[in-house]
Design a protein that fits this description.
This protein is mostly helical. The protein has a domain of 80 residues. 61% of the residues lie in helices and 3% in strands. It contains five helices and two strands. A hairpin with a 2-residue loop joins β1 and β2. The protein is elongated, with a radius of gyration of 16 Å. 25% of the residues are buried.
Length: 153
Amino acid sequence: MKKFILSLVIMLLTIFMLAGCGGGTDSAAPADSAAQELPTATEEPAATEEPAATTNGVDMTLVKELEQKNIKLVEVFNEVAPLAVNNGWKEDEATLKDLTATQAIIETFNSIVKDPASAEGVDLPGMIQAADELIKELDTNTRAKVSVPFTGQ
């Protein structure tokens, strides 16, 4: 299941890299800083007003559904990430990668919600399904794992 989720995360990130974003600057943290600490809790995404049916070929009902899934994902992430930190899981490379990838997905979903036109040509139903699976994985397996102290095994 973890390999599936990780593959799904990589696929989503690849899709967004290929879809291309605006000419903004990249403000990503250096790669070595991600290996030293777990991601912090993410801010709750703000709900948007009721959208029109489509914008630039993007089905706004799907964007709204993705927004709702992202809100739930953020809620679960904001519960699980502090558990991981408090129980010493920042020492576990796999857990760190999973939580960092989840935070990147949350940021990607936020960017789509803020700028729906950026989702033109993107598989929004697939992203919604991936969000459901990620929520389930975080809420069950990851939560159970990080709820106990890390023993280094």
